[in-house]
Known about the structure:
By secondary structure, this protein is mostly helical. The chain has helices spanning 3-25, 31-52, 60-85.
Amino acid sequence: MNTRHLNFVLVVLLLATVATFEIGERGVAGPLAMATLLAISFVKGRLVVLDFMGLRGVKFFWRGLLLGWLLLVSTLIAVAYWIAMK
């Protein structure tokens, strides 16, 4: 993994953090806001797992395990939000 790529990922993570902060500070609510925040969180988690934890080049088992966990948690949060909306 080269430094330029990691710096690019870091900038993406910082911009995503600023975006989620702004959404929260503006008081945006509703299903679209929740879906946006959840999608941004998933992308951030994926970038951390693949690039900063260095799992991009390892066997699928380890990547799949952590990305599957991230997907499971994201799905459970979305389902809980959906149930609460009813």
